[in-house]
């Protein structure tokens, strides 16, 4: 009975204290996100088993906010404003009043830890923000921090206490304990207490939660208690794990929730994001409607506010990554498996293969080439991770050794070339760079950037004739059959059916000979390369021609009388029979210098005196039309052509006769007249006159004797005799 009365009194008290209201109280969350929040609550680096303070706070604060979502208007400030190493910038409102519980969760998911702990300046900024909100509902500040306040540059580092464990901030410090942070690391407790007092002076209570094992007692706890006392809330709450933080925030929310708003219509039902089921009913603690969990039957899941047989999402115990969170396959409401976030990777970590690990993917500033451009290693200040950032190289350039450089244009786009038996085409890629690319493999050979076709068809090793030579079929460098160079057949042989055969006959090309019946035959080169005699002419045998040594000889045409002599210039000529039987003039040796050819003989000249003696023995200086010359003594007028007689002379001495007067054996007429005989002793045509001499030969005889008398004088013979008797020797 006592318990019933107590429960009834609690309901009445709650109903009286938590009436529905039109303007909800303000709960302004001032969250410390300094760099130390990346560590675990117990100190040291965070792990998946012992997550960071930031990871825990990012989950617990939104959960409590959602639990009391119909009893507060939220606002969220994160401090410091910057996340660089030990930054001291004032906190920034990331979700303004009124913010929902979902917006609170978004605020925590959007940032990460980094920087110092400027608590005093951030509380002062919170007072400015809250003063700008016009409402009759209460306003509260919820300060969540993991360390002592600092970042006041007005403090003296030589005398202040350091907030970083083991650090000395004096200007004379040295060694590993000298952090070199200066006034930034000085304990800023007095300014922080003053800022909390200023808020409380405006009617705004300040609730303090210290979330770190080092803040649970001693001087650290005393500093936070002083801030809470100045803010009108007595002492600070402390927590060193998830459960303790959840309990502290629940206590603060219950104390400050003075009224509520109905969260839903009584009797409504809905499914939660985790697959559970909720029903809307009156909350006896607040006397407002709220959502309360309702369990679906085993092996069923909530769908559309109702329970239906579930379909498992995953294999129980499996893990996977979802962004920077680790999800584990768990048994959800009704026993169905579903994915549940079990860990959130901390600053400097990334989820991979279902666990959080270091996200240092590369060395800061490093670069490397990709298929389309270049990647540079950048550092994300919010996540603490290094990652590759890619960018494409400009057109006409290519990545080389981690940098974009102008590409070496190996060829002209569209050009073709041969590489062995393959055809290559010059191709331009998306960057404008060109390179040779395989295009086609040729069956036989490649020529001029295209596959060629063999132009010759023959069997390897077969032979054929080409003129008077042999060609052999072989395989050339293009893998095609081709006739090789012509190998000439030896002399006196010819090519037939691809082999060399000896010629039936041989002769010297151009040689002539006589055939039967006056035929002229010449040795000629036949088409097969052999030489043989063939008819090239015919002598006119009926007309008297005959063939000799391959030449047609006409009938004889005697040029002269055998034995006759004459001069041609200063050279004698003699009439002799030719091989053909015809007489012809034949040249003899030219007269030596100083002699003159006369009537076919060479004579020396003699002086112009009346009587001269000739040097050669048996000669006498005799006058001739040509001049005076040494002529033989006696019989000079005979012979084939006696001097002065020419062709008309008879045999030697013919013109002289037997008598002295007619010339005799040494008739003077013979010297002067040749065939004509003595000085007119004989008559033309007679034996004494020398035969058939021209009628004026007596003149030549008279002149030959040196006589100045008349050509018809009968004294010629006598004068000639006197010349022989009375000759004198020359000088």
Uncertain parts: 1-17, 635-731
The main pleated sheet reads as: 6 strands, mixed
Provide a count of the helices: 10
Report Rg.
75 Å
Give the end-to-end Cα distance, rounded to a whole number of Å.
208 Å
Mean pLDDT: 79
Q: What class do helices, strands and sheet pairing give? A: alpha+beta
**What is the helix content?**
10-25%
Strand order of the largest sheet: 4-3-2-5-6-7
| Oligomer kind | single chain
Shape label: rod-shaped
Give me the count of strands.
Answer: 46
Can you describe this structure?
The chain has 731 residues and is of the alpha+beta class. Helix content is 16%, strand content 31%. The protein contains 10 helices and 46 strands. The strands form 17 sheets. The protein has a 6-stranded mixed sheet with strand order 4-3-2-5-6-7, sandwiched between helices. Strands 29, 30, 31 and 32 form a 4-stranded antiparallel sheet that branches. A hairpin with a 2-residue loop joins strand 14 (319-322) and strand 15 (325-331). Helix 2 packs antiparallel against helix 3 and helix 2 runs parallel beside helix 7. Residues 1-17 and 635-731 have low confidence and may be disordered.
Structure keywords:
731 residues; alpha+beta; six-stranded mixed sheet; four-stranded antiparallel sheet; 46 strands; 16% helix; 31% strand; rod-shaped; disordered N terminus; disordered C terminus
How would you concisely characterize the structure shown here?
16% of the residues lie in helices and 31% in strands. The radius of gyration is 75 Å and the shape is rod-shaped.
